[in-house]
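To the team - magnesium ion complex, inputs and output below.
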Amino acid sequence: MAKLILNRLSKAFETGGRPAVNDVSLEVRDGGFLALLGPSGCGKTTVLRMIAGFEQPTDGSILLGDRVLADAGDMVAPEHRNMAMVFQSYALWPHMSVADNVGYPLKVRGVTGERCTAKIREALAAVRLEAYADRRPADLSGGQRQRVALARCLVTEPDVVLLDEPLANLDRHLRQEMEETFREFHARSGATMIYVTHDQAEAMALATDVAVMSEGRLLQVASPQEIYARPEGRLVGGLVGQGAIVTWPAASVENRQLDWDILQQLLSRSDGTECADILIRPQDVEIAGEGVPARVTSVLFEGERYALKLALGDEQVLRAFSRQPVQVGDMVSIVIRSAWRL
Ligand code: ADP
Ligand code: MG
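Output:
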């Protein structure tokens, strides 16, 4: 196997229109698990379909190791890419048993007999469905059907597994359970995985790398921790995790990681220096004795804590957590332990 490389990849569906995918360059290491994250319509599915071979790039190229899979002139057919795609709708055959559904890609490839049976058993074990081999899809829950679809894609031992919002049809509880299944599936199969989602929590929980897209463009690729702590720009900062973005006169400050000493200086500055966007995570806002005053404008009880919105000065809104109950309209004193200049 080898790494998957997208090299300045673009796709325009109509000539002259805004490209659905615009100059995307990206490398996914062999065995990596990349989440492609972005709002609906930003081009995620189009990227996936180009990787799978269902769509030809208008520009740029796709390589698996040093093998060119597609460029604007040439294209390797989908069935010769050794990739598997799992869709939001599981696309199972209703009249076939679970085992036959899973074995279907093998049958198409002419694999039969004991070897076929063994591979089906192995794939079903990987998604913990050994006991369900003889059932029909209609007799399974949504989560189990999704696991059958995963087993079916695993059975051909693909180099690359492409997943297009595979959990979008499941309820929250089942999604968490399936996230475990995906992580396990990735660990066991060793396949390179690309997982498309518009759900940032899902992307962060699952993948080893997150690529954030907006309007056809790639904004940032990094580990979930890096994207969370050091997002590049307002769009990524607003898309990933909770937090508030404030605009303060910080353009002349050198560091991007800001501590309370610097933030206090910024808060008291009203000179003409250019403003910068600063991201403040709620857990970095501490309600403490010796800070600056803020007014509570909203309180949401979340069980283990209260999620607050705070007004600082006339217009800046911060988010914070409190263990103690507070009321809308209360004045509190806050210290901002850490912030990130976008
Ligand atoms: P996402 O998966 O992020 O929601 P898509 O890749 O499906 O986004 O779509 C990106 C853009 O490309 C959208 O504006 C969509 O309308 C457009 N698009 C997608 N497929 C086609 C197509 N086959 N023909 C024309 N426009 C398309
Ligand atoms: Mg899509």
